[in-house]
Structure formats: C-alpha cells, structure tokens
Write a sequence for this structure.
C-alpha cells in the first residue's frame, strides 16, 4: 500500500506537467505519463476484442483498459493468425493511440502545395470543399479523372464511395511496388496466386528455402511463428541473400548470392533437380504441361554456368538442390512478399514457382495449401456506374498480365494526360512518398492536380502535399469491415472501438459516407451506422454483431486444405496443368521459361542500394509511435566492415549516401558489419522522413525511397523494380556527424 | 522452495523485440528506460558467420550482489520464487546496486528508485507467464521453477547445450540460453 501512496503523489505531479505539455501539443492528447504499473486493488480492468492495424496481417487482439485508459494489447487466443501472440508492432499498438504527433482536426492548405502550412477547418467545410472540387472535375473531365490510392482494409468504405462516384482508377502500392509480380508469376505457373496471408505451410516444411526473404525481420506474425516452429522442429533452412539476415543465422546453408542474380541460381537449382533426376516425376507427369520444352530450356543452366554469375560455388548449388529434393514434397521455396527488385520480378517469381513445381509441393503438407475463407454476404448495394473509358493506368494493355491497378500507371497518366486526364488524387493511409520510386515524379504529378486529398492518422510526408488533410481515428477508436482473409481455418474477425478518439478524428466509414452524401450518392449508403452495415453482413451466418463484439473472432469448421486431408488438386491455367512452359507468355512475346538477364552493375566506388524491413516498424507508418520509435528510432546503413575501413567510415558515426543521380540522403549512422557483401549496402525502409509534423521521426535516419530515383518496370505486369540504384558515401562534418 | 528462472532458446529467437515492447506496456516502463533488451553477437568472417540473438534482463541471481550491497534493504530476495525485487519505498536511489550488477540490468526510475525486471511477479501470482514470455511469437522463452527437476525449464536445461551470461562474476544467474 505504501507503493500506492507514492504513485498517487506522482500522479499529481505528472498531471500538472502533463497538462502543460498537452495544451502545447493539442487539446485532448492522451498523456502517457502515469506509471501505474500492474492493476492495484480497486482498479477497474476491462477488455475489448478487436483486430490489429499495425500491419496488414490483421491479427485479432484483445485490448485491456485500466480505469478507462488504454493499458495493453495482446493477441486473441482464439485467433488462427496470432494464436494469442501479437508481433512487436501489434503489442506496441498502444503507442499508436498515445502518439503525440497525431492529426487532430481537418486541415486546409494555406500556401502552395508541399509547403506544409495549414488552417484548421470543420469537417463540414473540409468535405464540402472536397465534394465541390470532385463535382467540378467530374463535370469537366468525367468521374474517371479521380484516382483513389489506398492501403489496407480501412480503405474499403472510401473505395465504395469512389466506385459509386464512377471511377475505375482504384490502386494500391501493395501491387506494383510490392507483391504483384509474385502473384503474377504463380498465376502463370499454377493458375493461382499466393495471396495474403501467404498459403505457405512453413510450420510443416522439412526444408525451407528463402530467396532474399527475411522472415524474422519481416514480421508477418503467423509466418514468423511458423518459421520458429520449423526451426525448432529441426527443418533444414536454406537462405540465399546478399546480407546475412536473421533467417540466414538459422540456416544450414547460407548462399551469399550476388544481388540481381537470383534467377540464375533458381535456374541452376532446376537444372540439378532435372539433370540428377531428383524432381517429383509422378507430379510432373500427372500435372505438368510443357515439361520437355522446359527441360531443353534449362539444360545449359548448370551450376558451373551459374557460378560466375551468382558467385555461389557449383557444389553449394548442387548440395542445396539435393537437400531440397531429399525433403520433398515438404520442401518450400518461399515466394517472398516484397519482390519488386529488378524489373524481371514476375519471371523470377515464376522461377521460384517452377522450383516448387519440380518439388511437387503444391497442395501438400509442408508446401502450399488451399486456404479457406469464412463466407460472409456482401452488403446489397446498388450497382456501380459503368465506365466506358476503362482504367487509365495500363493503356492498351501494355502490361498484359497486370490484373490490379498500377500506382505508377496513374502517376504517368497524371503527368501525360494520356490516355485521359487525371485531375484528382484521393489518398487513404499510404505514404506514397516512401512507397513509390522517384519522388520527383510523384511531386510533379501532384502539382498537376486540381485536387489532392489525404486521409491519415499522422501528418505524413504525403499529407504535406495535400490540399485537404482528413484526420482519421486510429484502429483502436473505430469499426472497420470484417476480416475474412483465407487461411488454414476460415474465420471472421471484428474491429471495434476500444477507446474514444481524443480529438476531432473520424472513422473512415463516417468520412466515406459523409462524402458520398455531399456528392449526391446517398443511394449507396442505405445504412445509417456502421453497426447496421456489419449486422447486415452477418445475415445467414447465425452470428450476431453482439456476439462478434464479445468474441472478436469466430473460427469456422476446418475444411481440408491439402492433398493429405483430401483436398483435390486443380490448376486453373489455360492447359489445366502446371505450366512449365507458358503458352500465355509465349503468345505475348515473353520468355515461356524464365531466362537470366544481367542487370547493370554499380560503377566504381558505388554500391547497390538494398532495402528491407525491421520487426518493429511497418513501412513509414509507425516511426512516430512512441513505443516503436523507442525500440528503433532510426535506421543504419549496413556496410561491410572492409568497405567501411577502406572508406574510413566509423561504426556508429554518420555519413550521407549519394546516389547515381546526385541525390543526397540525410545523415545516417554506419553499421560496419560482416553481415553483408562488399558490393551492396542496406537500409531498413521507412526512415529519413521529412514531414515537420512528425516531430518524433523527422530527420532520423536515411530514406531509401529518396535514393530510389531509378526503377525498372516489369514488362509482364508493370511492377517497379527498385534495387537498381547505386550509392556512394559522402562524409558528414560537424554537429551532424 | 521455488527458484524461478528462464530458459531461452536462441535457435528460435529472431530478436523482434516483442519482449521489450510487451514489458514496456505491461509494466508501464517510462520512456527512455527498459527492463529488458536485445543483444546480438556476431562471430566469424563473411560469409561464414554465427549470430546469437539474446533477450536479456535481470538474471535474478542466486548470489545477488545488488542485494548484499544495498544499504537500506530495498533490494531483497523475495520469498516467492527467490526472485530479486526492489521496494521503492525503502530505496534511496544511491545507485550502489547499479554499480554492482554485472548485467547492467538496473536503472533509476524517474520516481527516484532503482528499477528492473520483476519477472512480472504480479502476473506470476495470477498463474500467468511474465509478459515477455507470454507475448513471444517464436515461443523461444520459458519461465519456471528450477527447484522442480520436472519443470519444463529444468528439463530443457538437462536436455540442451546452454550457457549463462558472465558466469565468472560468480553471481549464479538464473537465466540460461540454449544454443
């Protein structure tokens, strides 16, 4: 009890100090200051289930409040994704609510775009302004002249509003800047993509192969849990990566492949599997199409051929291929997730698909499974207007295998006005300044717009370029649509408010509905409140919203997910088989079997810039979260220790990076390490932010996105390969060092 | 008499810092301070490397120098599980314990007392694992009673190669790392 008295005393002190701080920031900012520790007798502790928004895995969680204030967030034990354990970002979701850098009210631009000077306005004024501009654009250029960019399930309601408005130009950087090429490569081979969460049975894999994929640093929860499970069960791990990743430290075989040569390594693996007769004959004979033509194509791709390209010794290539064969079909060559590297990424992904095909792991335990999703009715909305003009991002089907919208295509059309003009961008929860390559092109496109709107929770870099910034409630303060992503078990989970918004933030469903009303699209919002919408979607399931609010996640009956459990094999490709030789690709003039083509090498004195992820951050979204910021406040540039010595770069001291086009980064600490090749450097993505409203994050570390001025577009599907930039070092003097 | 401790499997650990963040929220550890942290150790030359990642904290030593050096008795061995705790009311913030700890596990809380890992004793009393153990997505951490030869931690130590940190300090730490 004596501890309590001391705490009470300090709470008074903290309250006084906190009041001053809060007033300076903005009214209503919750203060993370009373160190109440564990629950004391008399404390009121309550829990609210919801699902996470720190990344896009959408783990179900349980938030705990103490005396009405948010205390902690833990995984929901009933959730198949988290299995009761969130990742560090989900655990740190508390900080998203307490973030002192949050936006609090709608903002209208005062000066020219990008100057980041604002007037606070009411929601009515902000949405009225936007609706008037949208109507003007629609009258002058048609509804298609508005493009909607979004990321995550929170964008669903606004997407609905823009579909109702009549534009087909709805895009997300998760396609052309991330996993699009992978899904195209797998569709071309197996007729189905890998989806999210990935349909990979990592847990039961006896051999797991990672090609540049850094599980453990890339923290998608279920995958990392399963990775640890596989390692714990003694699975053989093979990692090919220019950097000795965390995953590499778990590997029996680490192959320090030269950046940009993965296709050569994959072809050599195929060559060994075929030449040494190690592949799954029964699978290939029953389900394969064009195998003989494929075999002829890869006949020359021996380990000796691959050695000078990849720098991986032939015996290591042979031994790893044999190791894969030894454990098949429970050998999984992971398809990766962020795969936009060199512009031939769909073909590299297809090469990964083909190695998997040779191992016969499709639909098998320890390979790829058939995920199941929980069936929920769509809300019975009226039909959307049809656009005769089609989408603007891929004119003439230039990228024949693009099956989702291309952000870079929208940007190009905005700049050129072709095939028709784009005059408005509406951006939901995606910082395009860091997500897309070549910031200068993005800025020029924005300057050509009649309207630029950003919805975000913090004053992000992209928000700085908007005409209107709309502050959204964070996930802990709002309802969103149900999550029913296909997984091992079908499930449905609910996001619901845990706490109230501290300022004038609003949930996306409210913003989407109000905007629709102002645009005269009320017919598309027959529901009054989001609860009404959610209740309607549960019709026929036997579930009620009240039960979902209580349980957070409901798991449906398990259905067979692989051959072992009785799921049939089927391949919805044109041949109905696994396409070792792709007629679709040949018809469009592409290589029917992937080929290795060399990529430009760094000039003398330059190093290839590679980038990836850290487990405590998501893109550039989480750097102001006080808990996650503290865990990793800045990134470092990884430089091999010998290179650092040669360039007199001291570990822990700062340096600037300069790319091949003369673009100079902010100062960034050097991590002189043995854990990377000498021909490349590495940055964790999302740092080096420049928006002055991000007080906790601004100026910390270097931005890979800023240095990615060049990109190689994938001719199959329009993805932007971004590992094609080279940097050198520039000393930092004085106080910055 | 129970002797609580931890066994941590470095083969599974990916150093994601979930344990660090969970401790911060569970125990409301103030900004700028940590009761647990991640250490990494790289050995070898590229590409022949070994990397050990460890989640570290107070070792709740069997012979805790922080307890013997404490002038007020604030640092003490708790009856339950022989864990090492600090009584904030008795602590005068003299920092003798900070100097004596070979693991650098302690800090002075802004309220003026020495603070560190408590093995989440408040959770353990409710039958739960410490927050860091309960949150770990790789399930690399195990908490239990070394006095019980049949406990999971005792069995893991018997079965696997392991090491403790700075054993030469002679404090008999009760956190062990499986390699």
């Amino acid at each position: 009890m004596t501890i309590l008295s001391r705490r009470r005393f300090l709470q008074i002190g903290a309250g006084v100090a906190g009041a001053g701080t809060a007033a300076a920031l903005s009214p209503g900012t919750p203060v993370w200051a009373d160190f109440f520790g564990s629950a004391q007798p008399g404390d009121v502790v309550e829990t609210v289930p919801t699902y996470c928004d720190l990344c896009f895995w959408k783990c179900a969680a349980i938030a705990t409040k103490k005396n009405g204030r948010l205390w902690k967030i833990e995984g929901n034990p009933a959730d198949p994704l988290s299995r009761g354990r969130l990742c560090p970002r989900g655990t740190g979701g508390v900080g998203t609510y307490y973030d002192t850098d949050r936006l609090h009210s709608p903002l209208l631009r005062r000066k020219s775009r990008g100057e980041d000077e604002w007037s606070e306005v009411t929601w009515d004024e902000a949405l009225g302004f936007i609706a008037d501009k949208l109507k003007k654009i629609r009258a002058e250029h048609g509804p298609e002249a508005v493009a909607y960019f979004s990321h995550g399930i929170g964008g669903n309601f606004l997407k609905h509003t823009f579909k109702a408005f009549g534009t087909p130009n709805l895009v997300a950087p998760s396609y052309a800047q991330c996993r699009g090429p992978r899904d195209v490569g797998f569709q071309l081979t197996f007729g189905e993509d890998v989806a999210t969460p990935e349909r990979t049975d990592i847990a039961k894999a006896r051999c797991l192969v990672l090609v540049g994929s850094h599980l453990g640093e890339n923290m998608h929860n279920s995958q990392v849990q399963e990775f640890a499970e596989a390692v714990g069960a003694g699975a053989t791990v093979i990692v090919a990566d220019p950097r000795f990743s965390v995953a590499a430290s778990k590997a029996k075989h680490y192959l320090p492949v030269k950046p940009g040569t993965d296709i050569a390594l994959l072809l050599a693996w195929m060559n060994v599997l075929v030449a040494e007769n190690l592949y799954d004959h029964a699978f290939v004979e029953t389900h394969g199409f064009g195998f003989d033509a494929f075999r002829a194509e890869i006949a020359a791709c021996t380990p000796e051929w691959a050695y000078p390209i990849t720098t991986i010794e032939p015996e290591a290539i042979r031994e790893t291929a044999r190791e894969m064969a030894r454990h098949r079909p429970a050998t999984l060559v992971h398809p990766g997730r962020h795969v936009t590297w060199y512009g031939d990424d769909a073909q590299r992904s297809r090469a990964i698909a083909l190695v998997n095909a040779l191992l016969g792991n499709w639909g098998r335990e320890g390979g790829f499974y058939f995920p199941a999703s929980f069936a929920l009715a769509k809300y019975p909305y009226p039909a959307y207007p049809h656009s005769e003009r089609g989408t603007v991002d891929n004119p003439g089907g230039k990228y024949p295998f693009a099956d989702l919208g291309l952000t870079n295509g929208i940007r190009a059309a905005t700049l050129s006005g072709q095939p028709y003009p784009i005059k408005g961008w509406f951006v939901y929860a995606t910082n395009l300044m860091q997500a897309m390559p070549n910031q200068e092109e993005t800025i020029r496109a924005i300057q050509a717009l009649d309207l630029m709107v950003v919805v975000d929770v913090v004053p992000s870099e992209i928000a700085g370029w908007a005409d209107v910034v709309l502050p959204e409630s964070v996930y802990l303060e709002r309802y969103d649509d149900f999550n029913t992503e296909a997984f091992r078990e079908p499930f449905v989970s609910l996001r619901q408010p845990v706490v109230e918004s501290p300022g004038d933030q609003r949930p996306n469903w409210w913003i989407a509905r109000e905007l629709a009303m102002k645009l005269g699209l009320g017919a598309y919002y027959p529901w009054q409140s989001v609860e009404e919408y959610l209740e309607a979607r549960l019709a026929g399931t036997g579930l009620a919203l009240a039960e979902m609010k209580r349980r957070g996640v409901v798991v449906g009956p398990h259905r067979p997910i692989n051959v072992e459990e009785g799921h049939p094999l089927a391949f919805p490709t044109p041949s109905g088989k696994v396409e070792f030789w792709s007629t679709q690709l040949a018809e469009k003039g592409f290589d029917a079997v992937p080929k290795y083509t060399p990529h430009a090498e760094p000039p003398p004195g330059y190093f290839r810039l590679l980038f990836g992820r850290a487990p405590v951050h998501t893109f550039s979204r989480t750097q102001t979260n006080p808990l996650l910021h503290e865990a990793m406040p800045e990134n470092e540039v990884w430089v091999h220790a010998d290179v650092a010595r040669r360039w007199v770069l001291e570990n822990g001291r700062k340096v600037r990076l300069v790319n091949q086009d003369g673009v100079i980064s902010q100062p960034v600490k050097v991590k002189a390490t043995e854990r990377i090749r000498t021909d490349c450097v590495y940055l964790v993505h999302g740092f080096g932010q420049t928006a002055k409203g991000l007080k906790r994050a601004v100026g910390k570390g270097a931005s890979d996105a800023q240095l990615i001025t060049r990109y190689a577009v994938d001719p199959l599907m329009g993805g932007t390969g971004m590992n094609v930039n080279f940097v050198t070092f520039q000393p930092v003097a004085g106080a910055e060092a | 008499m129970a002797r609580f401790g931890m066994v941590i499997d470095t083969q599974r650990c990916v150093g994601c810092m979930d344990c660090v963040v969970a401790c911060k929220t569970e125990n409301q550890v103030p900004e700028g301070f940590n009761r647990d942290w991640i250490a990494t150790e790289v050995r070898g030359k590229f590409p022949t490397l070994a990397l050990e990642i460890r989640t570290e904290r107070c070792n709740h030593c069997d012979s805790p120098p922080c307890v013997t050096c404490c002038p007020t008795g604030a640092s003490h061995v708790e009856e339950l599980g022989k864990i090492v705790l600090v009584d904030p009311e008795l602590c005068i913030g003299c920092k003798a314990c900070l100097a004596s700890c070979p693991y650098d596990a302690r800090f002075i809380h802004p309220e003026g007392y020495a603070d560190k890992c408590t093995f989440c004793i408040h959770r353990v009393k409710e039958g739960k694992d410490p927050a860091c153990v309960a949150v770990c997505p790789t399930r690399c951490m195990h908490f239990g009673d070394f006095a019980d030869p049949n406990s999971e931690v005792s069995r893991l130590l018997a079965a696997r190669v392991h090491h403790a940190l700075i054993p030469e300090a002679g404090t008999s730490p009760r956190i062990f790392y499986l390699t």
Remarks:
- DSSP finds 23 helices and 26 strands in chain A.
- Confidence is low (pLDDT under 50) at residues 1-36 of chain A.
- Residues 179-370+562-587 of chain A form a domain with the Dimethylsulfoxide Reductase; domain 2 fold (CATH 3.40.228.10).
- Residues 195 and 362 of chain A are 14 Å apart (CA to CA).
